[in-house]
């Protein structure tokens, strides 16, 4: 049996994606060990989730540091202390500088509530509703030095309805986030991801010539 992949999860808020990762590990669907959860906000509910499962939960408030680099140096030290191999951003709402990103080359993943490259940045679900797209979704990607930009690992699509709000669409997308984030991390744990020319090759992926999502479904 290969040893489990050591994860460090960075959060800022509710931590439902963190919960999905914890649950997938506990169900043996994800061959990983969650070494540490770090929040930049002391009131993040995700910290309670971590503690409830007996996981180390560390608060590193960005406001306590005089510079971004000092904050990130503390993050890096903590991740190294817990021997983290893959850094998982799960609703972590601080931009990370090249200093941090270069410390973990192709070892940081993020989830974003949009079908990137559409709608990067904040309020992605609102942007999708306002633009009137009929298909939206979620993206797991490696983190590079641009926001919501790096090589795409996995995406899931959902329909958008004309009466959707930011909240109703966000909930539909979030359900898919919880499915694909553990699955994408599992592909990493299995060594099946290769980044080539800014794109991700998934080794031995299952293919379909017929899978489609049409929205509206019926006319
Ligand atoms: C998720 O919807 C995630 O995709 C989003 O923050 C939310 C965190 O929810 N991340 C971003 O927008 C990153 N650009 P959670 O704390 O319940 O996992």
Structure description:
It is built from 6 helices and 9 strands, in the order E-H-E-H-E-H-E-H-E-H-E-E-H-E-E. Strand 4, helix 4 (98-101) and strand 5 form a beta-alpha-beta unit. The mean pLDDT is 97. The termini are far apart. The protein is globular and about 55 Å long. Helix 5 crosses helix 6. The chain has 219 residues and is of the alpha/beta class. The chain has a 7-stranded mixed sheet. A two-stranded antiparallel sheet has the order 8-9. The chain has 2 domains: 1-104, Formyl transferase, N-terminal domain (Rossmann fold); 110-205, Formyl transferase, N-terminal domain (Rossmann fold, 3-Layer(aba) Sandwich). Residues 11, 13-17, 46, 90-91, 111-113, 148, 174, 177 line the site of glycinamide ribonucleotide (GAR).
Helices and strands in order, then pairings?
Layout: E1 5-11, H1 16-26, E2 32-39, H2 45-52, E3 57-59, H3 68-81, E4 86-89, H4 98-101, E5 108-112, H5 124-131, E6 135-142, E7 152-159, H6 166-189, E8 193-196, E9 199-202
Parallel strand pairs: 1-2, 1-4, 2-3, 4-5
Antiparallel strand pairs: 5-6, 6-7, 8-9
Glycinamide ribonucleotide binds at residues 11, 13-17, 46, 90-91, 111-113, 148, 174, 177.
Fill in the keyword field for this structure.
single chain, alpha/beta, 2 domains, 7-stranded mixed β-sheet, two-stranded antiparallel ribbon, binds glycinamide ribonucleotide
